[in-house]
Amino acid sequence: MDEPNPIIDALDLAGYQLTAPRRAVAGLIHSYGGHFTALELEAAARDRRLGVSRATLFRALELLTELGVVERIDLTTGEHAYVACAPAHHHHLVCSRCGRTADVEDSGVAEAVAQIARRSGYRIDSHRLELFGLCRHCQAKTNLSA
Amino acid sequence: MDEPNPIIDALDLAGYQLTAPRRAVAGLIHSYGGHFTALELEAAARDRRLGVSRATLFRALELLTELGVVERIDLTTGEHAYVACAPAHHHHLVCSRCGRTADVEDSGVAEAVAQIARRSGYRIDSHRLELFGLCRHCQAKTNLSA
DNA sequence: GCCACGTTGAGACTGAGTCTCGACAAACGG
DNA sequence: CCGTTTGTCGAGACTCAGTCTCAACGTGGC
Ligand SMILES: [Zn+2]
Ligand SMILES: [Zn+2]
Ligand SMILES: [Zn+2]
Ligand SMILES: [Zn+2]
Q1: Domains and their CATH numbers in chain B
Q2: pLDDT single digits (tens) B126-138
Q3: What's the CA A14/C1' C19 distance, rounded, in angstroms?
Q4: How far is the CA of A70 from the centre of ligand 2 (A)?
């Protein structure tokens, strides 16, 4: 019943109260393997009768985003989605079919960014890279059905 | 009065009618050096009394996005913005101070992406890279005032 | 107990974008 | 030339995302 949840840990560590609504939202987010939209999260909270108001839900999302344990990504469709992840700089690899996301370390990206900075004369402070494709699992399924 | 406008050309080339509202929106977008939000575009259309309805404005944006001459980017603040650009794969370098954007060719990014694909086992179909920082101009200003 | 502060829920509000519908204009076919 | 089809438009309702205000409540500290 009380599985370890890094999201709750992060809240605790940052000195926030571990209230029931926050625990509920944290649990909900933790249960997603991939990305989720605000709408989905709202619906899930309603379905499970968590008794979390919309405002609190968004407040929790904002808080967790600041702590770096949740990130907002933008899908190719233009939709916004959120994804739980570790609070360190990295990028997201999103499966366009099943929504599963993988964290990606900086394999050569930092270098490319540095080169862009050199060529453009801009001082680059931050960047965001999102990658879309098919995870191994969905590739296999595609090959079978083809 | 009739400056060349690549946006209008793109509409023409794709076989769309060059109606007054479309010309108006195209002219408006063309006049921006950097990114603009939906709200700004709306306000600009209203101020100049272009007589373009909201629906048409968004329809035009959608159309131009499909044609690749306008792209939607996501600022660090979480805001959506649009930017006029050439219909080829490239990335955007956005000045966080003045909003000026520069197009960036793929300096080493493709390679990094290929490496990520190899390591992760995902089949990567597309990616999006957005870079934020200060343009030369704004760097100079910062140095002076510092 | 009192007070400060953090947190919450309800609900109004804004921004972004979509959708429907009726009008109109261009394109087309006879 | 007329009728039809297709493209485009404006108005306005609608949805979704997110923010804000405000009053209520709980948990401290003192
Ligand atoms: Zn992540
Ligand atoms: Zn998948
Ligand atoms: Zn561009
Ligand atoms: Zn600048």
Answers
A1: 1-87 (1.10.10.10), 88-146 (3.30.1490.190)
A2: 999 999 999 999 9
A3: 44
A4: 20
